[in-house]
Design a protein that fits this description.
Blueprint: E1 15-17, E2 24-26, E3 28-31, H1 42-54, E4 59-61, H2 72-81, E5 93-98, H3 113-127, E6 132-137, H4 146-158, E7 162-168, H5 172-185, E8 189-193, H6 207-214, E9 217-220, H7 257-272, H8 277-286, E10 293-296, H9 301-308, H10 318-328
Helix pairs in contact: 2-3, 4-5, 5-6, 7-10
């Protein structure tokens, strides 16, 4: 049974300071990229949100185009927020983003002031909130001056439509430039959201150092490499898995024979630690104190409960870390 009125929820979670700010994020945050769209079951969404919150997950992450259909995740979340969660708005932190394609025409994409402002206004209406806690520039726009994009984030914070500014998918160099601009404007960059997992080490090539130096928080998305770092593919490809679908980010060519062997070897390490491969993969990220939070996605309450168990052991021996590197680095999907 799931109870929203759970006074012990905060004792179940680890919280970490987000950069040089007053904000603490739960070590695990819930992302609504998948499983909260118009094609998904409202009751399942509601149960996952309740379970997350009752276990101390106070941060819910969205973007304007999450769905499908684009915008439907924000709309569904808004319906739940104004219903079951109506009394808890001040106990949760809501983030959303803009910068990927959302609507037709020259203003429905990228990082112009027009797009970011219009998009956030739309997001607020869909979620039925007066403000979001974090608003991100979802990706660097190569055709818009960084001063315009960051200036818009600053403006939206000053208008009270967002409390903090963040960036996602920015290179180390652009992250440094963005941080400098925002600092000079008086709205420091709170957080960066990069893709990071055992098979994607791109943030290790300069980004994490920039974030540490600039005292910017880091929340890692895709911690399970779109499902590769789970036990789903140890023996075969399930018909209902992401990799079996002809569309999406994870394709069959990602599961090479060499990578499959690495997954099985990583699974052996996880079992010796008393964890599932997914739990170990999440814990591996949290071992680094520069990681403020790990953004998990779940398709069911049971999967969410499994991910929560990763917090029971986030410490690794040097031998374990060396073995993980030795197995995974030769078959990385992204090197940066």
């Amino acid at each position: 049974m799931i109870y929203l009125a759970n006074s012990n929820r905060y004792e179940k979670m680890i919280y970490r300071r987000c950069g040089n700010s007053g904000i603490q994020l739960p070590a695990l945050s819930l992302g609504l990229w998948h499983n909260f769209g118009s094609v998904d079951k409202p009751e399942n969404m509601k149960e996952m949100l309740k379970l997350a919150f009752d276990n101390g997950i106070t941060h819910f992450d969205l973007a304007n185009n999450y769905g499908p259909e684009p915008g439907s995740a924000e709309e569904n979340f808004g319906n739940i927020l104004t219903g079951d969660f109506k009394s808890y708005r001040d106990e949760v932190l809501i983030s959303t983003k803009a910068g990927y394609y959302m609507w037709a025409g020259p203003y429905g994409d990228w990082g112009s002031k027009k797009h970011l402002t219009a998009s956030l206004n739309q997001s607020l209406r869909r979620m039925k909130v007066d403000y979001v806690d974090i608003f991100y520039s979802h990706r660097r726009d190569p055709n818009t001056p960084l001063e315009e994009t960051m200036g818009t984030l600053d403006s939206l914070v000053r208008q009270g439509k967002a409390l903090y500014a963040g960036i996602s998918n920015y290179s180390p160099d652009d992250t440094q430039k963005a941080a400098n601009i925002l600092r000079n404007l008086g709205t420091p960059c709170l957080i960066h959201q990069p893709r990071y997992n055992i098979f994607d080490r791109a943030p290790e090539n300069g980004l994490l150092n920039v974030l540490e130096t600039e005292k910017i928080g880091c929340i890692a998305f895709s911690p399970l490499a779109q499902g590769l770092l789970t036990n789903r593919y140890l023996n075969t490809i399930p018909d209902d898995s992401r990799i079996a679908k002809p569309h999406g980010f994870l394709q069959k060519e990602s599961l090479t024979a060499e990578r499959l062997q690495a997954i099985r070897q990583l699974n052996d390490i996880a079992q010796k630690r008393g964890q599932t491969l997914a739990q170990m993969s999440i814990a591996w990220l949290l071992r680094d104190k520069r990681i403020t939070s790990v953004l998990i996605g779940a398709s069911s309450p049971r999967q969410l409960e499994d991910n929560l168990q990763s917090l029971k052991n986030i410490d690794f021996t040097e031998d374990e870390l060396s073995a993980i590197d030795r197995i995974s680095i030769p078959v990385l999907m992204y090197r940066g």
